[in-house]
Amino acid sequence: MTGFSRITRLMFTIPAAALLAVAAACGESEPAAPAAPAAPAAAPAVATAAPAAATQAPEPSPTAPAFRAAGATAAPTATPAPAMEQTGDVKVDTLVIAVDPSAGETNLPWGGTVDHHQQMDLVMEVLVDIDPERNIWVPQLATSWELSEDGTRWSFQLAEGVEFHDGWGEFTAQDVLHSARMLTREDTLLAYATDWRSIDLEASEIVSDYELTVQLKSPNPDFLFYIAPSGGGLMMSKAFWDAEGLEGYNEDMIGTGPYRYAGRELGVDVDFEKLPDKHWRLNGEGGNPAEVDWPMVNLRWISEAATRNAGLLAGEIHLTELTRELADLAVQNHGMKVIQSNFPGNQLWGIFMGLYPETPGSGEWSTWEQPWMYPDYAPTDKRVREALNRAVDKDLLIDTLFSGRVTLSPVGGFYPNLPGWDDAWLERFDELYGYDPDRARELLAEAGYGPDNPAELKMIVMNIFGFPESADLVQSIGVMFSDVGVDVSYEEWEFGNYYASWTKKEEQSLGFFVGSPSYKTVYAQLSLFNRSSGFIHLYETQELDELFMELSNTVPVDERAEIQNQMGDVLFEDYGYLPLFYIFIEFVADPNVIDTWEFPGSDGANYGHFDLIRACRSAEPCY
Question: What pTM value is reported for the model?
Answer without folding.
Answer: 0.77
